[in-house]
Amino acid sequence: MDWLRHTYGLPASVIPPAWHMHPELLWELSALHLHWLCAYDPDQNGSAPLGWHRDFADARQRLREWVAACGTRLDHDRPTRPTVWPGEEPRDPIEDIPIIDRDAEFVELVMADVQARRDPDTGEVS
What we know:
Blueprint: H1 2-8, H2 23-39, H3 48-70, E1 76-77, E2 97-98, H4 102-117
Antiparallel strand pairs: 1-2
């Protein structure tokens, strides 16, 4: 994500440091990445990158909306607050968590994810 935010000068209101903690941001950024891979494939039509940039403008707006809705910021994060519908149990209060060392926290999350997906018998990751 660093490449994207540095190349286009994207603020934390579009791609916040804790983007990886929010499924809504993960899915949007994953779709954008896959679209980029397809648009810049050597076998793709020469105008495909223009389509990617057009769609990137739309994606930036959606990312701003996701970031505003989930409440993650430059220096703190919190889990996305789901709306409780009538008849559902109230949720526990959600507290902001300071972002101390974003890179270390990201590596820790990835390592935990890999470990959780590792087959205990073969050691392979699914």
